[in-house]
Design a protein that fits this description.
This protein is an alpha+beta fold and 371 residues long. The chain is built from 13 helices and 15 strands.
Amino acid sequence: MARRMRRGYQGPGQRRAGGVPFHRRHRKIVLAIVGTLVVVLGTATGYAFYLNHQLGGIDKVGGITTLPDRPDPDEGKALNILLLGSDKGKKIKGESQDTTIEQDAAAAVWPDGKYRSDTLMIVHISADRKNVYLSSIPRDTYTMLYNAEGKPEHMEKINAAFSYYGPKGTISTVEHMTDVRISHLAIIDWEGFKDLSTAVGGVPVFIPRAFYDPKQEIQWKAGEQTLKGKEALAYVRTRYGLLRGDFDRIARQQNFIRAMMKKMLSKGVTSNPVRLTKTLGAVTKHLTIDAEWETADLRALALSLRGTTTEDVTFLTAPVADTRTVPVYGSVVDLDPLKSKRMWLGLREDRMDEYMKLYPDDALAGDKEVS
């Protein structure tokens, strides 16, 4: 930790806005896209050959199963998938050429500081494949970070785990914090998000009130509008001008993913060969998964979810107790100990339905209610 403090690190764990306690906090992810992926692919059974080709070309990260001191595997067939949203990575000093996450993860040393991942989400798919729960972990969550060997390093914001220690370190950090065994890993970059929103022909969202975002220099108009490409990316990145800052951005991003899922599952996408091909290509081109997630397993999961609708998907955020300021790292988030423990139990034991009965108001607000 001293090393970080001495050099005045301004990386992913540093630049976070403060917030206030909130009732409906719903974190992003653009990364729910993989949850969307398995749902959408299940509708594409007529494209078996193309599907196999696309899935077979996805970048992969190995070594996940070698991590030590992991939680016991879930009983039954429920899945907990860790979704990470990442930028494409900046070229660091000494690199002769651009490299991918797959290449960097396989290298002898992970490139500290090259990537950022502000999106962390556990996607829980129930054993009966009837329900999907997307539970976001706020990027400012203050916790112990674990390295790629599964060893503790220091306390910091959880989003720094990916930057410092890569995919394996992030999995180890999340597993130690939650005691939830991660079944699989999926990472998608922001360029994939832009491409996906364009491939589906734009995503309709409703903005309750007009406001100005000084950071991106965008004036958002009130009412329903269809966003794609750079506009879609700007929508989910907005936090300036929103009443609750990053917490409202969490809700915005989950609301956008929900709207995109509806669009992707609509006949306008799944019954249109050209649009479906572009959609699948946009996802798989920018996706990285763990090497243990074989193509046949991913395809089987997709097919098992082909009857899933957006009504079967619940968006949540790990319960927050408060925010505070920590020297060096700025504003951090403390999770609610009791509620978080109950959420982790629900994810671990496939009992998320019980959690929702206790806390029904934690689900994402309606699409006309999100800022």
